[in-house]
Amino acid sequence: MHVAACVQPAKLSRLQGAAGDRHRVHAALDWAHADAIIRRQPVDVLVVDPQFDTPAEARSDRIRAIRNRYRSLPMIVYSTLAAQTLRPLVELGREGVEQLILFGLDDDPPHLRQMLERQPGIVLSERLLSHLERPLSRVPGSVSAALERLIRNPCVFRGVPDLAASAGVARRTLYRFFERAGLVTPRELVAGARLLRGYAFLRVPAYSLDAVAEHVRFTDADALTKAMKWGVGMTPGRARDRMGPDEFVARLAARLAPHADFNAPHYWFASHSSGVANA
User: Fold this and answer.
1) pLDDT of 278 over the 60 cut
2) Is the separation of the CB atoms in 74 and 119 below 8 Å?
3) Residue 155's Cα: distance from chain center in Å?
């Protein structure tokens, strides 16, 4: 797991201790650096501190700004509990940021590690990557790494051009690599990655269909619905209510790599346009 950390040094030390050798913590120097880390690394979760760059003053505006840019990236607030932090914590709570760790109170290493590893979408991403291991082994390492980044953090990619740039190959070459590996087109892979994160959001009651579509870069709820039918054969509501995570990942994997040999059962559905924005 890759963790981007916008926290003060004492909190960073505890976070790195909790992550250990199993996870990598990318320490941001400032908010601009945090933005660069998210764009360049396969970040799974962002940990932020209201006093990150203003130790004497707690603020929420910069946290809200980066959250608005990367709505599908899970975020944890890591803060001290003091008079100056109460207002920004309340403001972030009103924005829907619910995951909070209090410095010196509930940040023992096991709890910190558990918070990092239980993020919505992270477990699903690892399961999908496991299903796609064979086709991913058939493409060059740079292409495989770009696909892993896409599946782990789809909000970073606006469409196929970004995916090709991340892989370091021409767009036409990317299509050829996908075809040889038995994968669907790059455009459909982008849609699939967004569907995976969208499914994780749909399982959180606070998110409406419109909000989920916006967070994962679909043009609107109708485009998300069309893509979900293409990906797993159900509407978003039915997928949320009737399909567990294992079945969802298995169906989506079978759609994304229709010629791969999965241990899970294959599911086949009629293909049609996914309606993805900017792909």
Assistant:
1) no
2) yes
3) 7
**Helix residue ranges per DSSP H, 153-275:** 160-167, 171-181, 186-202, 209-215, 221-232, 236-242, 245-256
pTM above 0.70, yes or no: no
d(CA 88, CA 30): 18
Residue type, 7: V
Q: Which residues pair with residue 27 across a beta bridge?
A: 5
- Which residues contact residue 266 at a Cβ distance below 8 angstroms, ignoring those fewer than 6 apart? 254, 258
Mean pLDDT calculated for residue range 223-231: 97
Distant-in-sequence, close-in-space partners of 58: CB < 8 Å, separation ≥ 6: 50, 51, 79, 82, 84, 85, 87, 88, 89
Q: Which two tokens stand for residue 162?
A: 């970004």
Positive or negative CA dihedral for 14, 120, 92, 28?
Answer: positive
Nearest to 50 by CA among 13, 104, 100: 100
Which one, of 192, 56, 55, lies nearest residue 131 by Cα? 192
Tell me which residue of 30, 52, 44, 93 sits closest to 73, measured CA to CA: 44
Cβ–Cβ < 8 Å for 103, 80 = yes
The Cα 18–Cα 128 span in angstroms is 26
C-alpha span between 19 and 25 (Å, rounded): 7
For domain 2-117, the CATH superfamily is: Response regulator (3.40.50.2300)
Sign for the CA dihedral angle at 6, 65, 215, 219 comes to negative
Query: Residue 193 pLDDT > 70, yes or no?
Result: yes
The hierarchical CATH code for the domain 122-256 is: 1.10.10.60
> What are the extents of the domains in the chain?
2-117, 122-256
